[in-house]
Design goal:
By secondary structure, the protein is of the alpha/beta class. Helix content is 29%, strand content 31%. The relative contact order is 0.26.
Length: 150
């Protein structure tokens, strides 16, 4: 996990509509950057729907919510449409951003070791600095937690 007080790595990734986004695009606003393992899985759906439910409150605080996983653009589009997600989902199939933010880790899944995304959320300030970092977050509680952090 990256250290609080360090500059957040910039990225250039496509969203669920194929449009490119960089962290630089959001300069001047707070950014909630959350990394999750996989579209349409129980925990990831709870987390995404939680952010969707609270989205108007994030907007009131002038904060942007960006979800990142290694799923494809098409997978993100289906996930967005199925749950009417009002925020941006970024596709990092090359793992460039996932690795830059140090969330690609060895996981122990029923005794089998695999590599995967560890559910992590960063709060980035208006100047692009990491001001909060939460590793191994609880999917259902994370959206409320982040709203309180703002």
């Amino acid at each position: 996990m990256l250290e609080i007080g360090t500059k957040a790595p910039d990225f250039l990734l496509p969203d669920q509509n194929g449009e490119m986004h960089s962290l630089e695009d959001y300069k001047g606003r707070k950014v909630i950057l959350y990394f999750y393992p996989k579209d349409n899985t129980a925990g990831c759906t709870k987390q995404a729907c939680g952010f969707a439910q609270l989205y108007p409150q994030f907007l009131e605080k002038d904060a942007v919510v960006l979800g990142i996983s290694k799923d494809s653009i098409a997978s993100h589009k289906k996930f967005e449409e199925k749950y009417q997600l009002p925020f941006t989902l970024l596709s990092d199939t090359e793992l460039s951003c996932i690795q830059a933010y140090d969330v690609w880790k060895e996981k122990n899944n029923y005794g089998k070791k695999t590599m995967g995304v560890v559910r992590t959320t960063y709060l980035i300030d208006e100047q692009g600095m990491i001001i909060k970092a939460f590793g191994k977050v609880k999917a259902a509680e994370n959206p409320t937690q982040m709203l309180e952090e703002l």
